[in-house]
Structures are given as C-alpha cells and as structure tokens.
C-alpha cells in the first residue's frame, strides 16, 4: 500500500518567523536556547542563553537597526556560526528588513561581488572580515552602515553598543521594531547558492517559505526541549539556518562547533543529542569507529553483540546503549539522532549506527525549497531512500525512463519566490507551479523516494548509455582506505571513458601498509577497482584512475565541486 504523507504530530502552523520565536518564548521561556563557550587565557567557561534572553537581544538589535535608518533595507551577515549571527538574522527578519546571509569562506572579491549583487545597504560581520570592510569604506561603497560583531574595532559600529542602544530605546517605549508589519509572502531573504559569485544564483525566500518548512518538519519528527543540537552546517545555507529555527521551535538548545577536527570533543562537552550533518562526515566517523574496533581486535566480538542486541530488540528489549556504551562514548555519549542531508548516505553506515542505538534520518532538499522537501520520519524509514515528501509538499517524477528514473519536481509553500534579478533562470526551474530540482530519482511502490544522481553529473557515452557517477562512488567509498571519490567522464577520442579520482586516507595506508610505494599503492587500488568493475555491466567499468591523498575542492556543505575538480585533473594531465 502506498504511503501518504500525513502529520504524525499535531503541531502549530506559523505564519512567519517572528511567530516561531514568540511561540518558543511562550512555551520554553527558561529553556536554554544557546550554549556559548567563553575562553579566557587557559580557562574555559560555558554560558547558557535562555529563549527569553535570546528574544530580548533580538528586540534590542532590531530596534537599534531601525534607529540607524535601516528599516526595509537589505542587511548582509557574514561570519562563522555564532550566537551573534542568530540574533542578527532574526533582528533583520522580524521587523527590520531583508537578510542577506553570505558564505563565510568566500574570497574577498566574491564577498564584495555578493554585496553588490544583492544591493546590500548594511553589513554585520565577524572581526576576521575587518580588512575587507575597511577596503569597502575607502572605496566609498554604497553600504551605509558597517556593524562589527566584535567590539575591538573603532572604525565600525560595535554590535554590543547597538544591543545597549536598543535596550535603552525599548525601555523608553520605542515599539517600532516590535510592531513592525511582516509580509510573510514578500522577499525577506536573499541566499546565494554554492558556486562563485558569477555563477551562483541568488535565491529569494519569504517568511512563509521558512515557517512552512518548520511546520512540515515538526509534523513528522519529535524534538524535545532537553535536546542539544551541534551547529556544524554553516548558517548561510538554509539547511543550517532553517535547522536552528526548527530546533528553536521545540525549545531545544544549539551549541556551536569549533571546527571539523573538534567534533568528537564538542559532542562530548555539550552533551549533544542531535547532530545534523552531511553523509561524508557520518561515513568518515563510522569508518574511524570500525578501524578503532579492528585495531583493538574486537570486530568479531562487536558483530556478535550486534546480532544479540538485534534479537533482544525484536522482543521489545533495547540493550544497545548499554552494550555499546564504550563506542557511543566516542561520539560524546548522548547522541540519539543524526540527520543526514545533501546527498545519499551508504546503507551500511545507516545500518551500523542503528545497530549501535543511534538513529539516522535521511532527508533531501535544496536552497530553493527552504530547504527540506523529503525526509524519513518517526514512522516511515527505508534503507537507501531519502524518505517521503513532507506533509505540505508534493513530489513527482518528470519524464521517467523505463526504470522509472526521471527528474524530481516539487510543489509546496516552501518553494522559493524565484532567483533575484534572473527571470530566465527562474523560468527554467519554475514551470506551472512546479519546481524542477535538477536531481534524478525514482519513487518505489510504497512512495519512498530514491535519489540516483544529479542531472548535470550524468555521464552520457557515445553509444547512448547513461552512467550515474554517484552509484559507482558508493561502491568505491566502501573501501576502508578511501576518504572520498569522484567518478567522471574523461574525454578521449570523441567519447568519454569512465574514470575515478580517489582520495586515500594517508594515516590508514601508512599504518596498514608502511612499506608500500606510490606505484604499488596505485596497483593495489587498481586491483580493487577491477573487482568493483566485475559487479557492474561493461559500459560502467572504470578505465582510468587518479590517486591522491589531497582532499578535493568542496563547498562549505562538503559537496565536491566537480567542475573545478575536472578542470584541475585536465590541467594536471596536460602538464604531465
């Protein structure tokens, strides 16, 4: 029987983002909204910000921004994930103007280009961008106000001073921000998609887009006020910014990640129970766990424990947290749920984490859809799928082939207004109320959606055969020493040959095969690739490999920039 999307939980439907925050303060006034780490010399302390305190800071900053003449203006934010980013984002959205979150990793010229393309009137920034802002000031840029989140720069307005100024104005009865009208259907956010300034598109989102996505997520996944989420994904992506608002709507706490190397430490120190990340990270974590188990000679013992705990689970007795306590402690000891998005995750990794008592939920979406379209939920999951559409979303397959694979198209209140000042690109993806995702997939007989690849990544051979790189990459990534891989079509004799770039884990190779030369390593990898070839039809066989220990070029959500990698490979081939 085909599964239909329907609410699992009865939850409120918010009109706009201000209502989301107001509801959190009403229901969870004294719950921790954010956990802040403060470092003074060698001493580390932690400060909890309640929802009541968070709202006060938002109201203070919003009031101050309006006093600067920024009502209805476009205000950019650029910084790593931090508390001030969250306050600034809501202070802009909830009564001041239009938010323009910028990628924190952009080079200077692209930051300037993004500010110009979005026609930003002001910018709120972290101190690491001080030099860029000084340059803009000298050039008499059209930006009217420069606000530094850190108070040690005299050339700019200090964020802390604005908080104080807003507080004083509110105490005197200034309600301009508090009473500001919000048009939930108007453009309120301009978000750039991944890519360079010239090629990225500026997505226009509304309050309704975000609020509806929060409603859709709350309808199917239970989050508790006692939960703690680690903000790893950057807030300038909707997966990050909608995510923290989703957790806020349930009174959960958000802690800030110190960087990818510090994830194990952060999971432990903040007692993180929910971790939202990309598949590559979960797969890497799972590999490290298994390597450590193998190193201790406990692989057989752990597998036996998994079999036993699975048997007791069928009897309604869950002993996983006790049996695998030492392993779970490597992940902080408190994780109950990991949410994976942006790409498909290896089935074995999902099985492995579930066997340990850590639930993995997969989802799928895009910046243009605020972002989630499809997700597994508290009732329906299926290995390999990204779940079923949210309760307020329709998904169909456009022009399916004989295997039922075609482009996914979606319709719902979370779909963007369009691309800013790019009517041509908007018309390409928005047709008759449907958003064409550019992703290929199929829907099984029960209604679960499976992603097979990106339309533009498909390798089309001269004989008409289509190859989905992601399918082959999954097989390569299962090799224990592989950190990441990219399958591509290498141009040769007016056709393409299926090729793979393989990044190996240097530490693993040095420990396992210390005397292996680079040529011997490549021969070893070739042998394993030939075995993978045997599991596929001839036209999918890999005929060329590039081997390196240098990480691939990625976006801030850890997606490989295939075009740039291809360019790099071809340049290196020509040099040799």
Explain what you see:
This protein is of the alpha/beta class. It folds into 3 domains: 17-222 and 236-247, 3-Layer(aba) Sandwich (Rossmann fold); 275-455, Rossmann fold, CATH 3.40.50.12780; 458-575, 2-Layer Sandwich (GMP Synthetase, Chain A, domain 3), CATH 3.30.300.30. The chain contains 19 helices and 27 strands. The strands form 6 sheets. It has a 9-stranded mixed β-sheet with strand order 2-1-11-10-12-13-14-15-16, sandwiched between helices. A hairpin with a 5-residue loop joins strand 21 (434-443) and strand 22 (449-454). Helix 2 (51-67) crosses helix 3, helix 2 (51-67) packs across helix 6 and helix 7 (207-218) crosses helix 8. The longest helix is centred in the first third of the chain and has 17 residues, at 51-67.
Label the overall shape.
globular
CATH superfamily of the largest domain: ANL, N-terminal domain
**CATH class descriptor name of the largest domain:** Alpha Beta
- Helix amount: 25-40%
Q: Using the CA coordinates, give the radius of gyration.
A: 25 Å
Could you report the average pLDDT, rounded to the nearest whole number? Answer: 91
Our count of domains comes out at 3
Low-confidence stretches: none
Class by alpha and beta content: alpha/beta
CATH architecture of the largest domain: 3-Layer(aba) Sandwich
For the biggest β-sheet, the strand order reads: 2-1-11-10-12-13-14-15-16
């Amino acid at each position: 029987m085909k599964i239909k999307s329907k609410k699992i939980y009865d939850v409120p439907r918010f009109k706009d983002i201000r209502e989301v925050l107001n509801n959190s303060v009403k229901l969870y006034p004294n719950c921790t909204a954010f956990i802040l780490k403060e470092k003074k010399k060698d001493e580390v302390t932690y400060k909890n910000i309640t929802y009541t305190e968070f709202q006060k800071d938002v109201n203070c900053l919003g009031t101050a921004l309006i006093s600067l003449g920024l009502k209805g203006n476009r205000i950019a934010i650029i910084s790593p994930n931090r508390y001030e980013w969250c306050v600034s984002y809501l202070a802009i959205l909830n009564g001041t103007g239009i938010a323009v979150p910028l990628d924190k990793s952009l080079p200077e010229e692209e930051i300037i280009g993004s500010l110009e393309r979005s026609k930003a009137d002001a910018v709120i920034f972290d101190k690491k961008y001080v030099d860029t802002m000084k340059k803009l000031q000298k050039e008499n840029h059209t930006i009217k106000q420069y606000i530094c989140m850190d108070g040690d720069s005299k050339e700019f307005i200090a964020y802390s001073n604005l908080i104080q100024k807003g507080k004083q104005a509110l105490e005197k009865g200034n309600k301009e921000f508090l009473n500001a009208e919000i048009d939930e259907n108007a453009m309120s956010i301009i978000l750039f998609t991944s890519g360079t300034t010239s090629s990225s598109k500026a997505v226009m989102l509304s309050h309704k887009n975000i609020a509806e996505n929060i409603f859709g997520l709350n309808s199917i996944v239970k989050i508790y006020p006692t939960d703690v989420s680690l903000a790893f994904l950057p807030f300038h992506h909707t997966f990050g910014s909608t995510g923290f608002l989703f957790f806020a709507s349930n009174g959960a706490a958000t802690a800030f990640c110190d960087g990818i190397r510090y994830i194990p430490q952060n999971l432990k120190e903040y007692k993180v129970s929910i971790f939202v990340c990309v598949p590559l990270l979960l797969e890497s974590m799972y590999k490290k766990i298994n390597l450590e188990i193998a190193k201790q000679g406990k692989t057989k013992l752990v597998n036996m424990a998994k079999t036993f705990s699975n048997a007791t689970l069928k009897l309604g007795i869950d002993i996983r947290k006790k049996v695998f306590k030492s392993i779970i402690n490597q992940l902080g000891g408190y994780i109950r749920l990991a949410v994976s998005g942006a790409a498909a995750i290896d089935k074995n990794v999902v099985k492995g984490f579930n066997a340990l008592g850590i639930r993995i939920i997969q989802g799928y979406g895009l910046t243009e859809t605020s972002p989630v379209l499809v997700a597994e939920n508290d009732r329906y999951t299926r290995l390999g799928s990204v779940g079923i559409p949210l309760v307020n979303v329709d998904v169909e397959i456009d022009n399916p082939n004989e295997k039922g694979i075609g482009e996914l198209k979606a319709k719902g209140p979370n779909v963007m207004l369009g691309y800013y000042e790019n009517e041509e690109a908007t018309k390409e993806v928005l047709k008759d109320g449907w958003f064409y995702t550019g992703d290929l997939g199929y829907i099984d007989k029960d209604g679960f959606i499976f992603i097979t690849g990106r339309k533009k990544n498909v390798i089309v051979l001269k004989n008409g055969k289509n190859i989905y790189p992601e399918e082959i990459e999954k097989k390569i990534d299962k090799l224990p020493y592989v950190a990441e891989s990219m399958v591509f079509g290498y141009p040769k004799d007016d056709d393409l040959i299926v090729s793979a770039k393989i990044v190996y884990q240097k530490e693993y190779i040095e420990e396992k095969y210390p005397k292996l030369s680079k040529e011997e390593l490549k021969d070893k990898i070739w042998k394993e690739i030939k075995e993978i070839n045997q599991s596929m039809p001839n036209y999918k066989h890999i005929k060329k490999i590039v081997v390196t220990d240098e990480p691939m070029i990625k976006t801030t959500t850890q997606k490989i920039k295939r075009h740039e990698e291809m360019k790099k490979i071809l340049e290196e081939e020509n040099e040799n």
